[in-house]
Specification:
The protein is α+β, with helices and mostly antiparallel strands and 166 residues long. The protein contains 2 helices and 7 strands; from the N terminus they run αβββββββα. It starts with a helix and ends with a helix. The model has no long low-confidence stretch (mean pLDDT 85).
């Protein structure tokens, strides 16, 4: 291998790696900013979030263990969707994974349209609440990655909290 080939290879490698590092840092900074914003909103709601998570630069969820409340934020350019739920009011939390199947000849493809948590209220007249973890037609920058695992994790946490509270 001669020197010019080696230098060309290094330059091509750097041209690939630098944008990846830049985008990764940009997403990390956006998630940190969202977490700060989320915690500020929770303080305004009178909550002290002890466990939280942010994803896709638009979503955040957290728990105030002292107040036994769940706080959720979906941030869009137009507005913020904020939901606060008391664990005392939740009978059960489940994951809704809306998938449709497309057939193309002999091949079938499953497409996830929506991932959300559904909350069944202990009140008989209470409507079912949902919080979105992923929506295919929501934000155009959202890519399906680990949202299903994240929703399952939070459903488990929430169900443990509701069982501990009741």
């Amino acid at each position: 291998m001669n020197t010019s080939s080696f230098i060309t290879g290094i330059i091509l490698l750097l041209l690939f790696i630098i944008p990846v590092i830049f985008l990764s840092r940009k997403n990390t900074n956006k998630n940190k900013m969202l977490l700060t914003y989320f915690k500020d909103l929770s303080i305004q709601q009178g909550l002290d979030i002890s466990q939280s998570e942010v994803w896709d630069n638009h979503y955040a969820i957290g728990i105030d263990a002292e107040a036994d409340k769940l706080f959720y934020l979906k941030k869009t350019t137009d507005n913020d969707e904020k939901i606060t739920l008391r664990f005392n009011d939740i009978q059960k939390c489940s994951v809704n994974n809306s998938v449709r199947t497309i057939k193309e000849g002999k091949n079938t493809t499953n497409i996830t349209d929506c991932i959300e948590l559904k909350f069944k209220s202990i009140h008989t007249n209470g409507s079912e609440k949902t919080i979105e973890f992923y929506h295919a037609h929501g934000n155009e920058n959202t890519i399906l990655s680990n949202q299903l695992q994240l929703a399952e994790k939070w459903a488990k946490i929430i169900n443990q909290k509701t069982n501990a509270v009741t």
